[in-house]
Design brief:
Radius of gyration: 16 Å
Distance between the termini: 50 Å
Number of helices: 8
Low-confidence stretches: 25-39
CATH topology: Lysozyme
Number of strands: 0
CATH architecture: Orthogonal Bundle
CATH class: Mainly Alpha
Amino acid sequence: MRTKVIYNSLLILVSAVTLVIVLASEMDTLASARSISTRSTSRLIDNYVSLIRTSRVCGNPKVHYREAYAIAEAVNAAVAENPDLNGFAILCLIKTESDYNRKAISHKGYAGLMQTPGMSGYIDLDIRWGVRILKKKLDLAKCDLRKAIALYKGGNNRLARRQAEEFMRRWSQVPREMI
């Protein structure tokens, strides 16, 4: 039992250190992505904030405006780095993972907005890490979003597939005029 606890602690520590190293090496990229400001980008961020703060589909009206804006900016930066992903899909994933609670911790020890191993505490880094994981799952699923979300949520089991269906239901209800 004690060996298992030590092993799990070391695994979490190694994951956290790896996350910090990977994300620290790319901080310059994130900083430069934030400095790019265009009219279409700000409209998109406004749409993200609107979706986050709504009471329907993929939102949570309890999220404070400043936090919603920080999440929207982080999602926008992640999409700028991964143009084949949709920011609204990322927001739906955040909704189903943490309901926009950046301090959420699962019973398996995953944490943050996107419920990833090793939470940094920074919205932009946590979203970036979650998007990297999602990209890997999309590659494994050969770009099948439903399968990728099931993999993101734990694999090919009944619970993960049910959670993926919940994600797909929410994703299909995002007003297309927002996208």
